[in-house]
Amino acid sequence: DIQVRSLFREPDKYADQEITVHGWIRTNRGSNKFGFIELNDGTFFKSVQVVYEAEFLNNFEEISKAPIAAALMVKGTFVLTPQAKQPFEIKAKEVVIEADSDSDYPLQKKRHSMEFLREIAHLRPRSNTFSAVFRVRSLAAYAIHKFFQERDFVYVHTPIVTGSDCEGAGEMFRITTLDMENLPKTEDGKIDYSQDFFGKETSLTVSGQLEAETFALAFRNVYTFGPTFRAENSNTARHASEFWMIEPEVAFADLSDNMDLAEDMIKYIIRYVLEHAPEEMEFFGKFMDKGLLERLTALVNAEFARVTYTEAVELLKKSGKKFEYPVEWGIDLQTEHERYLTEEIYKKPVFVTDYPKDIKAFYMRLNDDGKTVAACDLLVPGVGEIIGGSQREERYDVLKSRMDELSLDEKDYWWYMDLRKYGGVKHAGYGLGFERIIMYLTGISNIRDVLPFPRTPKTAEF
Ligand code: 4AD
Ligand code: MG
After folding, report:
1. Which residues line ligand 1 (CB under 6 A)?
2. Pocket of ligand 1, candidates 436, 439, 444, 445: which has the most ligand atoms within 8 Å of its Cβ, to mutate?
3. Alpha-carbon distance 68 to 326, whole Å?
4. Which residues form the Aminoacyl-transfer RNA synthetases class-II family profile domain (predicted)?
5. Which segments in the chain show pLDDT lower than 70?
6. Mind listing the pLDDT tens digit for each residue in 18-68?
């Protein structure tokens, strides 16, 4: 049989041919002589129109009553209809109901709200919008692998279960086999993890970076692409508890090389998706964000801005804009500040570099001023931060004193310290939030709507 995607891509090739398609009914309307079915087969977010007539079908009565969501086999002639609203249709000769549907099917022809669709996560991929979103998500994932593989990066699978907190933010989901009703305790009253399955305290990873560094210092160019977990109880439209992250890590690279790589990657992803999902992207440009295509196309040819944190703070202060959270050197930039910088001041993606060390993680390389670290966050219009990265502290003594400052136990990071002892050359990397780039690509404003099965505080339906 034929995939509906092919009909939309190359209608001329199938003109006047006898074809067979399989799909589900999106709408079915008709009179007692003829009817129209919009049939969606999942290979494309748009549906193909099927025209059926009493004259040609011996089961006309049955088909005219076929409900939304019922699965059909349709045989008929594919005809181009350039004058009509639909560019083509299938004139049915045979229609078979392959699976019926109950009449209380929740998705009807009208436009449903994203909130309503979230409540039926098992059915929402059947809507046009989610069909387009999840196809773009799939293509973007492939583009990312392609980008790194073409550059001979090694894909490393870092562990999901880990004993170290990469970001040091204490936002880990702990996992344990201990009996929760009857937790074993040590003499000093702490939980006795020696009786746990792994014999120590473990959690779901917040980032594969520390492990990726071990591979970067062996393979030079590596990347991870996997799920990460954060028990951060922030109910925003940009935070999920389970999200995917891409983390390249490169030996012999500094902060500037790191930003060059990130910029090339972002442009590559955009170009790939525009080329391979033009219809879906056009759909987003029409229904999600009017300026989307223009913005993305311009961006592929533009140079991203780069500004230090210190300069950015000055710019924000000078802007005269009244922020909810006042700007002072030393604050962690809030979404409102990030968005103002990228949307109002630069009007394009901007890397903010060299943040105060006190608001960044322990592994970032200390700058000569002793106050800032060689960090880079990439901010984009509409979303804010999509990348967080840095050059890593490769100097054993500096790293050690930073860890002491933060009361991190050296014993927990002995292997990470070891990397600094044996050929620990300068290296850098970053983490791209996969959902954040999908939001950026589609104009979808809530992270829940780019995740196939969103996990956020108080929600994990199945
Ligand atoms: O800035 P973050 O916390 O950086 C790291 O985890 C580093 N270890 C990465 C590295 O250098 N290898 O997270 C990186 C990115 C953020 O910029 C954001 O896009 C995304 O991950 N992110 C989230 N996305 C969705 N929900 C959350 N709760 C997220 N937290 C971070
Ligand atoms: Mg960050």
Report:
1. 166-167, 207, 209, 230, 232, 239-240, 243, 245, 247, 385-390, 429-431, 433, 435-436, 447
2. 436
3. 53
4. 134-452
5. 460-462
6. 999 999 999 999 889 999 999 999 999 999 999 999 999 999 999 999 999
Using most ligand atoms within 8 A of CB, pick from 162, 171, 204, 207 the residue to mutate for ligand 1: 207
Q: What is the pLDDT of residue 404?
A: 95
Nearest CA to ligand 1 atom 25: 239
How many helices and strands in the chain, by DSSP H and E? 14, 16
Max distance between CA atoms of the chain, in angstroms, equals: 86
What span, in angstroms and rounded, lies between the C-alpha atoms of 338 and 336? 6
Amino acid present at 81: T
Q: Which amino acid residue places its CA nearest to atom 31 of ligand 1?
A: 433
Which stretch of DSSP H or E encloses residue 90? strand 88-99
For ligand 1, what atom is nearest to the CA of residue 437? Answer: 19
* CA–centroid distance, residue 241 to ligand 2 (Å): 15
User: Whose structure tokens read 């249709």?
Assistant: 89
Q: Which residues are CB-contacts of 118 (< 8 A; sequence separation ≥ 6)? A: 124, 448, 449, 454
Closest CA to 146 of 259, 276, 43, 296: 276
What are 148's two structure tokens?
């790194």
Q: Which positions ≥6 away from 164 have C-beta within 8 Å? A: 210, 412, 413, 416
Token code pair at residue 164: 């170290």
Length of the chain: 462
Backbone angles phi, psi at 161, to 5 degrees: -90, 125
Cβ-contact 428, 392 below 8 angstroms: yes
The tens digit of pLDDT for each residue in 99-131 reads: 999 999 999 888 899 999 999 999 999 999 999
Distance CA 433, CA 456 (A): 15
**Closest CA to ligand 1's atom 23:** 433
Q: Measure 245 CA to ligand 1 centroid, in angstroms.
A: 7
- In the three-class reduction of DSSP (H, G, I as helix; E, B as strand; rest coil), residue 88 is classed as strand
Which alpha helices (DSSP H) does 358-408 contain, by range? 396-405
Cβ atoms within 10 A of the Cβ of 73, count?
14
ipTM of the complex: 0.99
Structure tokens at 301: 């040819």
Which of 99, 77, 103 is CA-nearest to residue 90?
A: 77
Q: Give the three-state DSSP class for 338.
A: helix
Give the whole-angstrom CA distance, residue 76 versus residue 415: 66
Alpha helix segments (H runs only) across 70-152: 114-118, 128-150
